[in-house]
Amino acid sequence: MNNKLLCIQTEEGIRIYYYKQIPLDAKGLILISHGFGEHLGLYEEFMDFLLKNGYGVFAYDHRAHGHSEEERGHIDRFEFYIEDMAVVVRYLKQEYQDLPLFMFGHSMGGLIAFNYGILHPEGIQGQIFTGPAVGRPVGTGFIPESLFNLLEHYWARVKIYSFLARKGTRNKVFRAKLKNDPYVLKYGTVGFYCEFLNRGIASAKGKAMSYRLPVLFLHGKADRIIPYRASTEIFAQISSEDKTLKLYEGLYHELVREPEREEVWQDILAWLELRRKILLN
Question: pLDDT tens digits, the chain, 281 residues: what are they?
Fold first, then answer.
């Protein structure tokens, strides 16, 4: 997949790398927003499934992730992710204006897409979230906002190495793949975590009632990274008339990679097919 990557530039001139495959007779287009530390190549199996079922795919590496530019594992403002997504969506709507556009966001990518959906719902036919980080990760709920501000002010670029890889999925083959992947981030800076955990999540919670898009929330009840209650709580707050929540007993955080992933894929496909029928009518 690496030799098929293209790039788009943000308004600041930062190169954001992406992959796309869109059949001539595509039913719709799925924009994939990956989670923290990930990159678009980790979604190849899921993208193949969507393509086989008639949907075009577009996945990109968030800034400071994967192939995209900027300081690895760091961000000065969470809003940069929203601004980058706006650039990507603008490009897609110009190039594929006749295709219905759906977003898929996992974990941090779900948080980015959720915030984007509140601010820029126009032109988006629906969003799908797996394990969205719309609530504090396990073990961070007790940290006060004042401490985040202090840490970010003095130690913004100190690296914090992740220990969550084995908590993400029961899929041992995928876990082994992550260990030797040079594009997987092994750390985030203090500044990144402060922006993500404090500003990003606070924004989502504070504006949740303004969210009105058709949406599918999927979360594993055994998620040991983002508690499933993060999804149930924000699901109850949003104002969408068309909203669906499904919880999976025993599944971990990485739903589209769990041993039961085909069940998850089929649930996503069924939701997409129903939304597409609604649009056609």
Answer: 666 899 999 988 999 999 999 999 999 999 999 999 999 999 999 999 999 999 999 999 999 999 999 999 998 899 999 999 999 999 999 999 999 999 999 999 999 999 999 999 999 999 999 999 999 887 665 566 666 666 666 677 778 777 555 689 999 999 998 888 999 998 888 888 888 877 899 999 999 999 999 999 999 999 999 999 999 999 999 999 999 999 999 999 999 999 999 999 999 999 999 999 888 87
* Domains of the chain as residue ranges with CATH: 2-280 (3.40.50.1820)
Cα separation, 55 vs 26, whole angstroms: 5
How many Å apart are CA 233 and CA 203, to the nearest integer? Answer: 15
CA–CA dist 15, 203 (Å, integer): 26
Task: Give the distance, in angstroms, between the CA of residue 94 and the centroid of all CA atoms in the same chain.
Answer: 22
| Structure token digits, residue 64 | 């400071």
The residues, any chain, with a CB within 8 Å of residue 176's CB and separated by 6 or more, are: none
pTM: 0.94
Beta bridge partners of 247: 219
